[in-house]
């Protein structure tokens, strides 16, 4: 297996979809649409500013859609995955699963190396 | 699908393995062991310093091993994936494949949004 596609072409995309906050937000939204503070509670350790910026980037790339319920009082803002965003769930879930299974081994290796 | 494992636990690992240079280096080494300059030629646009730092991080995490052939003149340094590194190839290949298939769509979405 070498690199599918041209490195220079996919590198900018990888830096966006491989970003740790993006990975977690995509997986959390894969369950169902959610509101800002709900996402923030589930993505531990993310700041309000980072969540705002990451969601804006995902909207710009067409991976997440934002819906305003103006008839609510106060108005609601809900985020959901687009069809394109849904296609990213499987590869990101596999990466997260790998990280969850190997985090202890990696931490032990890093501790030994330091 | 929600997030496998605890967010706070896997986030540090994700930021390392989801890094764009890490993704490309792991896939390039999945073919066979390679020397520094060979890796640098194949990972377009990476600086010498960034390649050195990324390889050092991969070694520390136990994903890449480094072998010195001191009997060569000049001595050779070769990098290869460890068994743990090999287990990361499939999820990273899937992520790269997704990026290669969707980079045009994402660029078009981003252009429309700006």
From TrEMBL, chains A, B:
Alphabetized GO MF terms: DNA binding
Organism: Celeribacter indicus
Sequence ranges assigned to domain HTH hxlR-type in this UniProt record: 7-107
UniProt keyword annotations, A-Z: DNA-binding, Transcription, Transcription regulation
Coiled coil: none
Protein known as: Transcriptional regulator
InterPro entries, alphabetized: HTH_HxlR (IPR002577), WH-like_DNA-bd_sf (IPR036388), WH_DNA-bd_sf (IPR036390)
Source superkingdom: Bacteria
């Amino acid at each position: 297996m070498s690199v599918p596609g041209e490195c220079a072409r996919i590198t900018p995309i990888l830096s966006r979809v491989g970003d740790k906050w993006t990975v977690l937000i995509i997986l959390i939204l894969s369950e169902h649409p959610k509101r800002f503070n709900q996402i923030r509670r589930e993505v531990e350790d993310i700041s309000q500013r980072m969540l705002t910026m990451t969601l804006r980037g995902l909207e710009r790339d067409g991976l997440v859609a934002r819906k305003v319920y103006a008839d609510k009082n106060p108005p609601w803002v809900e985020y959901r995955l687009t069809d394109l965003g849904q296609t990213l769930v499987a590869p990101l879930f596999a990466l997260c699963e790998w990280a969850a299974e190997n985090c202890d081994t990696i931490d032990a290796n890093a501790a030994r190396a330091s």
